[in-house]
Amino acid sequence: MVKAFVFDAYGTLFDVHSVKEECNKWFPEKGDAISTTWREKQLNYFFLRQLMERYEPFDQITRESLKYACKANGAQLTEESEQALMEAYLNLELFEEVGEILSQLNDKRLVVFSNGSPGMIDPLVGRSDISGNIDEVLSADGIKQYKPVPAAYYYAQQELELEKEEILFMSSNPWDITGASSYGFHTAWINRKGLQREEFDIQPEVEYDDLKGLLEWK
């Protein structure tokens, strides 16, 4: 029986591209491009650091990838605009259905497990409308190894003090859901973008367009 619903944060509960508005405020007509490059480099940088065993906290990675994104898109980042855009990452918008669905899952232990460092993920969840629904917030910074390495999921499992089969893990990120499936969690891929499944020998247990499908697990 599943006892804990464990959610990835970025792209699963929170829309990382809701920073476009703040990007466009500082750099008119470049917000979409900056947001896209920012996210791409953020993922690229933490994957590289994990492979090279040169861990740095996610807030540093996010700041470095922002600087790259602005340079790549011909935007002059100042100290003021940098601070404003980093602050925007602490106030990302929830996807439309998230609040309603989480309120219906209150018979389960609801956990956020993110690669985001505590200085990013704690205020993001704490300031959001779901703060009262979330029982625990876990960060890969606790082990200083990023998902999707097995050690990261093992860390979350040990923190929750549950068996693998008692955990349902949700993510919109294919690399994350593959990692959790490989580790042995029950997995639900929240395929918000309608992506094609990976040609890989490890697949998610179930796939949903959004969080509404989780009501099947009540």
TrEMBL record:
Record-linked Pfam families: Hydrolase
Protein name as catalogued: 2-haloacid dehalogenase
InterPro entries named in the record: 2-HAD, HAD-like_sf, HAD-SF_hydro_IA, HAD_sf, PGP-like_dom2, S-2-haloacid_dehalogenase
Keywords: Hydrolase
Membership in a protein family: Belongs to the HAD-like hydrolase superfamily. S-2-haloalkanoic acid dehalogenase family.
Coiled-coil stretches: none
The species this protein was found in: Salimicrobium salexigens
